[in-house]
Amino acid sequence: MGSITKTNGAVNAQKVTEFIAKTVFTVCAVLAIFAVASMTVYMFAKGTPAFQKVGVAELLFGTVWKPTADPSSYGIFYIILSSIVGTACSIAIGVPIALMTAVFLTEVADKKISAIVYPAVELLAAIPSVIYGLIGLMVLNPAMYKLEKLIFAGSKTHQFTGGSNMLSAIIVLAIMILPTVINVSASSIRSVPKELRAASLAMGATKMQTIFKVTVPTAKNGIMVGVVLGIGRALGEAMAINMVAGGSVNIPLPFNSVRFLTTQLVSEMGYAEGTHRQVLFSVGLVLYIFIMLINLALMQIKKRNEEQ
Amino acid sequence: MDSRSLTNKQSRPGDVLLYAIVYICAGFSVLLLVGIIAYVLYKGVGAVNLSFLTSVTSVLKGTVGIAGNIVNTLLIIFISMIIATPISIGAAVYLNEYAKPGKLVTLIEFATEILSGIPSIIFGLFGMMFFGQTLGLGYSLITGSLTLILMVLPLITRNTQAALKVVPDSYRQGSVGLGAGKWHTIRTILLPCAMPGIITGVILAIGRIVGESAALLFTAGSAKTLPKTLGALFGKIFDSGGTLTIQLYLSATSEGDFETAFGIAVVLLIIVFLINLGTKRLAARFDVRRIAK
């Protein structure tokens, strides 16, 4: 009798342990949902008051940013535009370079050379963004300033920026998205079945024809994932471009000093007060919405790829 | 011989051009890394010496050093990882071992995916609003750490999940067949098998924290003093403290002290290099696929 009750006790104790373990693990997993939900709620709760105060159209499409002047003006249109233009241009420059590097790694280089290039790309991804910013500040900006003096020599309307301009930011962003796009594209190209290459070569196509007419087009869905990840990375980058893009809100022209959604937050959040601060939260909200759209697009693409 | 014969190798000018472009692009990526490393070392090595690493910048004493920032960085890593690691492992175990496909799992996977796509400046903004203001923690190392925990959760969760996935089902069946409960199986069989993956995730997360700046600027602040006693070290958790990256940013911008900035850049590059090497060694030594064989 005694031994049976003992066993029952042990079984019960085990049931309790199992229940506790399962509950704890579930709570850990649900935390991610909780984090995303509370972030979304906070971004909207803090980001919307300024829209009511300043007016949706005036805030989003206003072109004058004078938060501390009297009367103050909070137009963030150029900031939004700079972020879009900057991201688009960096993608236009970075993606072809990244794709060609991925082709080199997977199709052209022999194993020994890939074994050197691949870790280099990985290391490039691990370098902190402030170091990219520092080098941009010390190398890119002076070069840009020389170029600026050359191009705008004698111009009376141009505001000289000392090299802190849109172009520097685009170059830094293009470099920073390289590792992401290279890695994703390379693994996508690698997963193209060997038979396709063999068939193309057997038909008499050259290696380059095979790569660019067969292999890369077959891998295009995976490459797309890399590009969208790159867009997200470029749009969300803050510190590096804050160090090279200058400090005033302007139309995004190559030699203008510009502010992005992210750099606006980095440079003014520290001291902003009142409506100015609320408008910065709205800038954060605009960025958040952009990022969410990109994330959703990314998931859609991944889902489609899995179905295929 | 007819030059148009099938047996002759045809060379297409377009191919040569494509080869050239491919080589130039790949060369650019490598030279970029070499250039960055060489430039940082050239500019920064002179600033790095023992007193740079062990003292605090002080006008009174006339010293320039980053010891305070190193301590801040280590504290933030410690606090973040000690909280983020168990939570991430728990989440991964739930997703892999308990969850049945359904709405909850879809939602968790969705949230994890979203979380890993959010840029660090947004984490910083949220951390400042929620941990800093709502919870009243202000600019402090704990605010910064809590913010970073959200950021590294997906990273460790994914790595742990990947490691758990390759543990063969026969291990689970064997353990349950011998009468072990699920918790016992997880604790004694699954987690030890997944340990290399977990450690890789943890090291990657540490790397991410070391390089992080945007999420910390408005959460952990920028103070750089060094705590004098052990008690003060724990008290420091609730004080403002700038990490190495934050100090680099401030040195290069508002302070205009480029020597310090490059000195820190050298230190950061060395840390990043070691972390990179560490994860590689680990992955090679405990190849997770080895278990499955």
- The CATH architecture of the largest domain in chain A can be named as Orthogonal Bundle
Class by alpha and beta content of chain B: mainly alpha
Structural class of the helix and strand makeup of chain A?
mainly alpha
Q: Within the largest sheet of chain B, what's the order of strands?
A: 1-2
CATH architecture of the largest domain in chain B: Orthogonal Bundle
The major pleated sheet of chain B works out as: 2 strands, antiparallel
Quick check: average pLDDT of chain A? 90
Q: Percent of residues of chain A in helical segments? A: over 70%
Please trace the helix and strand order of chain B, writing H or E for each element.
HHEEHHHHHHHHHHH
Specify Rg of chain B, calculated over alpha carbons: 25 Å
Low-pLDDT segments of chain B: none
Strand order of the largest sheet of chain A: 1-2
Inertia-based shape of chain B: flat
- Examine the coordinates and then state which fold CATH places here, giving the name of the CATH topology of the largest domain in chain A: MetI-like fold
What is the rounded Rg of chain A? 26 Å
Quick rundown:
The complex is a heterodimer of chains A (308) and B (293). Chain A is mainly α and 308 residues long.
